Amino acid sequence: MQWKNLNEQTVYENPWFRVNLADVALPDGRHLDHFLIRLRPVAVATVVNEANEALLLWRHRFITDSWGWELAAGVVEDGEDVAAAAAREMEEETGWRPGPLSPLMTAEPANGLIDARHHFFWTREAAYTGPPADGIESSRREWVPLKLVPDLIARGEIPAANMAAGLLMLRHLLLG
User: Fold this and answer.
1) How far apart, in whole angstroms, are the C-alpha atoms of residue 168 and residue 147?
2) Cα→Cα distances 102→13, 22, 56, 123, 129, Å
3) For 8, how many CA atoms within 13 A lie in the half-sphere containing its CB?
4) CB atoms within 10 A of CB 9
């Protein structure tokens, strides 16, 4: 039961994304006009300290008018290595330069509409380099115990599904 993208036309484009209209053939032979958004990959990273606390950002998202905990994240620039992008974003948004990053997972946050892939990384090592260059990205940065992640999600304090998935995976990996 595979849907097939027969043709795709760009209807809007800017430096961050493209909105395309696709002619999709359904398994029963019908055709469907389907809008989709094409995005660059996103790189996500955090550091976990000896107390199994992850470095998180408390930030406001104006689109949903919501506050929540997130990991440092941003788009991968053209030609940039994904892990290097994750390290760059973590330092820019937190002021902590990560040590060697390990892949955690890749998530597709809204694959019925968007082709974005979010690549998550983590490390046990980081060096504080000073206040974050992108300090406007968050109101504060804190070490949050991984054991609290399920409760934070249940209370709506980690509202982004991709961030919840990454933090749950990290919690499972480190705490079982």
Assistant:
1) 9
2) 33, 36, 17, 6, 21
3) 12
4) 8
What is the DSSP track for 114-142?
Answer: B---EEEEEES-EEE-SS-TTGGG-SEEE
Q: Which residue shows structure tokens 């809204």?
A: 110
pTM: 0.92
Residue type, 149: V
Under 8 Å between Cβ of 134 and 92: yes
Positive/negative CA dihedral, 88, 86, 46, 116: positive
User: What is the rounded CA–CA span in Å between residue 112 and residue 124?
Assistant: 34
Q: What is the pLDDT of residues 7-59, one digit of tens each?
A: 999 999 998 899 999 999 999 999 999 999 999 999 999 999 999 999 999 99
Q: Tokens in use for 168?
A: 């749950």
Task: Read off the tokens for 60.
Answer: 């406001």
For 42, the 3-state DSSP assignment is strand
Residues contacting residue 61 through CB under 8 Å, at least 6 positions apart: 67, 68, 159, 160
Residue corresponding to tokens 């892990």: 83
